[in-house]
Amino acid sequence: MPQNPTPTSVGFGPHPDQQAGFFGWRVVWAAFTVAIFGWGVGFYGPPIFLHAVHEARGWPIALVSAAVTSAAAMAAALGVFGWALAAEPWQLFAATLLSGFGYAATGAAAINAMVSPWFIRRRPAALSMAYNGASIGGVLLSPLWVALIAGLGFAGAAAVVGGAMVMTLCWLSARIFSRTPAALGQAPDGEAVTAPPPAAAGVSRPGALLWHDRRFATLVAATALGLFAQIGLIAHLFSLLVPVFGAQRAGFVAGLATGCAILGRTALGWLMPPGADRRRAAAANYGLQLCGSLVLLAAGGTSIPLLVLGVVLFGLGLGNATSLPPLIAQQDFAPAETARVVALVTACSQAVYAFAPAAFGALREVLPATEAPGAAPLLFLATGAFQLLAVITVLGHRRASVVLRAGA
What we know:
Elements: H1 24-42, H2 45-57, H3 61-69, H4 73-85, H5 89-105, H6 108-115, H7 123-175, H8 181-184, H9 214-245, H10 247-271, H11 278-299, H12 304-316, H13 320-332, H14 335-353, H15 356-364, H16 377-394, H17 398-407
């Protein structure tokens, strides 16, 4: 079997204590690539599409935002074509369903399912590397979408990106994701096959009992609140920045946010101590994004330094909002249940934050005539409020810990 590349800088290569031939790191890089397309098309693409559709069709921002609310690479590619070719609002809603299916199948739960079988002890670092593909998708594809749409038109841009996505993900599925640790005779983390995996903490909640578990409920609620705020803001951030920076520079400022997300996620994934309370880390992350939203509010749509600072602060927490919930699930639940918990948390949060673009679009248009271009005070206030609720909720598991100890 070919050897893995020599370990590189922190966050972008295998950890030095891993065996050189461990296939798990190839899976991480493949998942990294999936995340580039998954988020670059399904997450960071819609804000660019929203602006393009609004400019081309003249439809109200609130209407286009509503369409954003409402299996994998092909669905996403066809969905982007639908965005480009929609001539009526109902066609835009249908296109969003396709791109949404594609994003769901290449999103957080899918990345966790790809990586988790290969890692236990080093899972925070492995997931941080894989999820960094989501941030790279924003850094590369946000400005690329703008440039391609300007040069080739929306349909041409969709053909280029969609075609590349389908071919790449099909190849990875055949060559990388078809392998399993057992089939290759390898153990998690690249350790000796005979070494038993470390004992995992966590509780077991089979069947419907999971829904009555306070740990699960607070994790679902905090994730949904945090992502509702995050996606509500991201969906409108590009079009809010355009009046101040212009379309091309606004794309690069949006890319700055995701560049900061790489830094934040990498630092947390590689530097977080093994026994650290991951819920505290999530609370700190939501708090950082709260600060970012308040700085954006203070910018008033006119102060370029404050706008950039707000984007940076919000961006530093952008990636961890996705990568921390699977790590919290690993810490709070038994290994056999972690995948189910992650899938349910992802599904429930998606069902909630699907309404974020429409809700934030309505807030954005409440004061359209009295505020400077790029200002959205109610939108930024709502972002901060939801992040504050997420901080409170993610720490609400402590009562459950007392109950569990009492019943032990």
